[in-house]
Amino acid sequence: MNASLAPSTPRDHRATPVLTSDHEMLRETIRRFIEERVLPHAHGWEEEGYVPRHVLQGMGDLGLFGIRYPEEYGGSALDTLSTVVLAEELGRSTYGGFAVTVLVHTDMASPHLANAGTLAQKKKYLPDLIAGNKIAAVAMTEADAGSDLASMRTTAKRDGDFWVLNGSKMYITNGVHGDIYFVAAKTGAPGRNHQVSMFIVEKGTPGFRVARPLKKHGWLSSDTAELVFEDCRIPAENLLGEENKGFYSLMKNLQNERIVLGAQAMGEASRALEITLDWVTQRKAFGATLWDKQTVRHRLAMLSARVEAVKALITNTAWRDAQGQTVTKEVSMIKALAGELVNEVMYDCLQFHGGAGYIRESAIERMARDARVQSIGGGATEVMLEEIAKRMV
Question: Which domains does the chain have, with CATH numbers?
Fold first, then answer.
């Protein structure tokens, strides 16, 4: 284990046969970084619309951007459960925009390079991504093609020693301030099909531009953009993986993405319940605290039980993934359950805060806004239910 990921005994130690003391030491490292480097400043990042680079480099310095990557590139060579710990603690920060900025870089974009890149590509890009010197984005979604990747319209045509990209991408996290973009484009026959390839595109490449930053309902400290490619010429060696096989790369990485999004959501839900418990045990109404109202107690108790149940599913699935087992159905369950449950938790937590929960300076108000996209991004609930149903028969 990377020495930078091993502080003193955690305050909140809860090791199990699956989550070991090493995982809990990692948890403490992340939690301490968030307390010291994130929480005092994150409100300003919401106003600015992005997380400052020096903060991300600080996470890189601690080894948090290379948790599962080989040590030869600067990584820590840990397991899927370590990624779950990272995602859960980022969710607990109460700033969803900060959390997703990090997770897109570590677990949604850079894995494309780690999993499919050539040795030369990994040597060129991976050390800087792990160190936080360069930030990654994955450009998959289009205005008319989200979960339905077969409808993708961006194309890449081979022209001698180059590929020429044309099209646009929408809702791209880290799109404004990213450095390295992993772009999906149609390379086969036109029309609806799965003949997609992945490409490495660096910021500053002629023909590639950020069309506009996008203003969002939540995740305000996460920069999100529309990207445009107009006769964007990239070297042939920037093809990432096999030609026309990018769809399978995207599908493979979505498994990891859905695990970490589920863990982030449950981190958010756990923290919201803690904040709300503190509130209802102090807030008085009609001569007693809100906690004295059975309706409030029982509702929070049931939500807490359901959050712990989904966490157990996530932990078990992450362990199985680390063993190399197929967990396609389970990650779809995680995404569907966690995305819906975190919104249910936030609704009730805000409700129990009353008017105080509706004010912008309230953490619960921000968390409720941020949570809404959890049932959309990374695979909408309805799409996930179809994925589960297909594997039931």
Answer: 3-134 (1.10.540.10), 137-244 (2.40.110.10), 247-390 (1.20.140.10)
